[in-house]
Amino acid sequence: MKGGWFRGYTIAYLIFLYAPIVLLPIFAFNNSTTVAFPLNGFTTLWFGKLWEDPALHRALSNSLIIGISAAVISTALGVFASRASTRYAFPFKGGLMGLIMLPLVLPDIILAVALLTVLLGIGTPLSLMTVILGHVLVCTPFSIAILSASFQSLDHSLEEAAYDLGETPISAFRLVILPLVLPGIISSLLITFTISLDEFIMAFFLAGNENTLPVYIFGQFRFPQNVPVILALGTILVCLSIALLATAEYFRRRGIAKTGGKDTGGFL
Amino acid sequence: MTSEKPTMSGQTMIEFKDVHKYYGDYHALRGITATIKAGEFFSLLGPSGCGKTTLLRTIAGFEGISSGVVMIDGKDMVSVPANVRPTNMVFQSYAIFPHLTVEQNVGFGLRKDPRSKAEKAAAVAEALEMVGLKGYGARAAHALSGGQRQRVALARALILKPKVLLLDEPLSALDKKMREQMQMELIKLQRQVGITFILVTHDQEEALVMSDRIAVMFEGEIAQLADPETLYRRPNSRKVADFIGTMNFLPAEILSEIDGKVEVEAKGFGRLTLDAEQVSVAPGSSSASIGFRPETLTILFDGQTATDRESRAEVVEVVYYGDMTYYDIKLEGTTEPMRLSMRNVFGRPVLDIGTQTRVAWSPGALVLFR
Fold it and tell me: Any signal peptide, and if so, which residues (chain B) (predicted)?
């Protein structure tokens, strides 16, 4: 009964992974300030409270500004790095790319503390800008990972064919390379935005007086009566994240299908 | 292919003058000097790594040269980038833009063309018809078969009416039948448009079938540049002879040399005199040998007599191919088997291994390497 054992393991694993997330909406709609069974009754009160909280609005707009900025900057950097690493040969390429990808596995808290020390040392005031800086550092490796796959699958002759047919390097990039890597770029924007949106450590250390959404959520847990409100917020965030990642994956797959390639993995 | 073409004007289209190319320490092109005539079907033939693709790419402008001159139609190309050279290329991978339709691919090079939209569409339709893809215009490029991609690549290059069409091993990805069909179509197409075609290939048969002239390349140098018949009948070195078709080599001894005529003695053939044009001198070779193609020796059956010379031989191997039979024979007094091919004729027996026979040959068909 090898198959049965594996099936049981799989089910247990999925329950462990998703049961807490499923509990979020259950208690978000529960008419009680204490998070416990039995359920009391249905309410949308907590979502209403969310709407009225000015501190939350502030945190949300901060997070959106940071998320969009970090996504755009890290994707732009990702395009440059991926193009360079797949198209050109340069000395110490392997080592350099390794260093660029390293923040992917370095503990965020180390990065955050190091960055904070440097920023304070050179006297930079903490602000949204410093959080964006930290998030770009965290997001760029993800962007490179996604975009390298897009650039790697491009046949080098396509670019030469465009030159051969009269295009300059710039117009060849615009007419041939960009359309072919565009799904990867969209995918990178969405994923880096999602990462930035729920990043906590960098935001906690580098935001100064400003709050981002995760930092705001963490702060609210000090007040037990606010917990259901946070669960309501969590419900919205989970739905949003799933929607964003699904969209990113849709674009990535559409890009592959459009060029007649074979799917070789990806994040989802 | 020695047929005369009305478009062949004999003018020089491409000229290489002592072209060298280094990749770091690697000497990829070692002093290429050659001319390619306008309207010619020219092939660069050689094993992989011989520099033939590099040479083609120096014409396209994808590869700079370290020294020397590349001229196209009388103009030095040194400062002319690829996108304004009067050449177009069919890539080995075809390089069809996968995000565009067949029509958009073929019309890609017309973006800056001042003609009206309708005129351009007509040109695209005409180009598609020329390569046998009429009605395929709206198809997605990635949904095409290998042969169809090849045709799109051809149409896309030819629609710009280049002075030179460059073909980088365009048939190597196709299966044998498709390849033979495309060879014929390319020959016809070239006659029809009259554009200079330069083909890179490692397939000697393909080069022989398609080309007006062939440059055989080894290790960054042109070993011989000649028409297919000369290359086949009078290869200028053992290396070229080995690369093109099958050639037998029989050790020989040079007896005398008077006014270019060489008198040699070879076991199996006896004493014979060869003309100067039958003798090729390769630098660094110490021993002489006589080379001959399998079909230049003919087995004599009962009652037949040789019109020129004949030798005694023993059959040591027989390979039957239907239309042909290949025999390995040992000429009298020799130890190495020689390959001989005979067209099968109805009513004539295939000889058995061990048969003692006579073979007819003619000194004019031999080549001396030394």
Answer: none
